[in-house]
Amino acid sequence: MASTKIEQGEDKTSTNLIVNYLPQTMSDKELFSMFVTIGPIESCRVMKDYKTGYSYGFGFVNYIKEEDADHAIAQLNGHQVGNKRIKVSYARPSGDNIKETNLYVTNLPKSITEEQLEGLFNRFGTIVQKNLLRDKLTGYPRGVAFIRYNLKEEANEAIRCMDGFIPEGTVEKITVRIAEEHGKQKAAYYAGFQAGYQNRGIFYNILDNDNFGL
C-alpha cells in the first residue's frame, strides 16, 4: 500500500513509527519479527498497562534508517494480522493538539460491533485507535470502549455531540469523556519510549534482549 501522508503542518519523526490496531495477544517479539524484515531496528515495543499487562493495541517501532521506516509504511500499512488490519504511520511528536485525544465511552449497547462503534464516531475526525472492551470469559462486549482521535478538537467535537446520545434501538444514553488516567499512563509510556532512543540504559532495547534469541 502507499505510504501514509503526513498532514500539512505536521512534523514527523523520520525513523519512529506507531503501529495501531495490533491484536491483543501480540508480543514484542512478534512485532519485532514482522518489522525487521524491512530493515535493522533500533528498538520496538507493544504498549501495555504496566500493572496488568493489558495491551493497549498499539506499539512503536524505531528503525535505524529513515528509508526503512518509509518502506515499512509502504509495505505493512493495512497488513492483515489475525482478524485486524494494522495501521502504520510516523509517530507524531508531542504537542497540545494531540493531548486529551483518548475518549472513554460507557453505556454502549452490549450487542455493538467494532464496525458500528466506528460508524458512530468516525464522522468527527480520524480515529487512530479504537478498543471495544470484551468480557474475558464470554467474549461479548462489556458496553465500554476507548476511542483515540488524531487531534484534540476532533475528540472535543465527539464529546459535544455524543455524550448523552441514545443509539438506535436502545433507551440508555451513552457517556463520553476524556480518558484521563488511561491517557496519562499511555503518555508516560510514550515519553519513556522516546527517552529510550537517547539513553539506551533507561529504556528496553530489543537488540540487546537475549530472550528474543536473535
TrEMBL record:
Superkingdom of this protein's organism: Eukaryota
Any single Gene Ontology cellular-component annotation: nucleus
Principal subcellular localisation of the protein: nucleus
Annotated compartments: Nucleus
Record-linked InterPro entries: Hud_Sxl_RNA (IPR002343), Nucleotide-bd_a/b_plait_sf (IPR012677), RBD_domain_sf (IPR035979), RRM_dom (IPR000504), SLIRP/GR-RBP-like (IPR052462)
Residues in RRM domain copies: 15-93, 101-181
Keyword rRNA-binding listed: no
Transmembrane regions listed in the UniProt entry: none
UniProt keyword Nucleus, yes or no: yes
Example of a GO biological process term: negative regulation of mRNA processing
PROSITE patterns (alphabetical): RRM
Keywords, sorted A to Z: Nucleus, Repeat, RNA-binding
SMART domains for this protein: RRM
Example GO molecular function: mRNA binding
Protein name (record): RRM domain-containing protein
Originating organism: Clastoptera arizonana (Arizona spittle bug)
